[in-house]
Amino acid sequence: METNLTPTNKIALVTGSGRGIGRAIALRLAKDGADLVINYYRNREPAEETAEAVRELGREAIIVKANVGEIEDIEQLFQAAEEHYGGLDFFISNAASGYNRPVMDQRPKGWDWTMNINARSLLFASQQAVPLMEKRGGGVIVSISSPGSFQVLPEYVVVGASKAALEAITRYLAIELAPQNVVVNAVSPGIVATDALNYFETMGQDGLLEELAKDNPTGRLVSVEDVADVVAFLCTPGASMIRGQTILVDGGQTLLPYSSVDPDETRAALEKTSEKSPE
Is 163 a catalytic residue? Predict the structure, then answer.
């Protein structure tokens, strides 16, 4: 059985791929031979940098601005992919956002914003992706989740609920799209040290990341490359019988019954969005 084939001459669309985990996934797929659709919403410069890095690897890249929380933007995103490439092999649903607040401080606007970007987008983007994948004989959809989907984390109720919904959608897509030869899974990273953490005051505490790393059985935090490697594997034929699963990439952290770090100090690290929440 062939298990290590790389996605040579494939076409991949990665949402939120200007920086952080999304950028790492885009570059990993490009290294493996895929052409890219780079997506961003607010800041074009990082997207340009990612696209240039893809081109330096010898692959093609286009940049499309779209807020995946808006249905019209999703449609335009996939229309651009079709117009440029004619089809699609891999759709990586990575873009995320959310409000970190206690349950009694949440507002309907924050709920709608978070659910639309983190969960609803996967369903309706997949509706756009599948016809493009069918043109090429099938494809792969991978969504990026969070341990907050099943762990109760401080001030994480809305994001956690959105990630639980995302994982449920992943399971339904996996079953219903199997006849179209579309493989669907999710990847759930632990705490990842990305630029997104700079948005949270908590992460500025001296030595906190080092303490979090010590808490991990591996002695380090998860890297963006760790996440990208697993996503890339799920895009290979060797992963074709993995369907509807959420793969934890956390070094075993969630298996531990305790942490030496105050949970209130970690809440921001578990939000892997690269976008500030709207007021």
Answer: yes
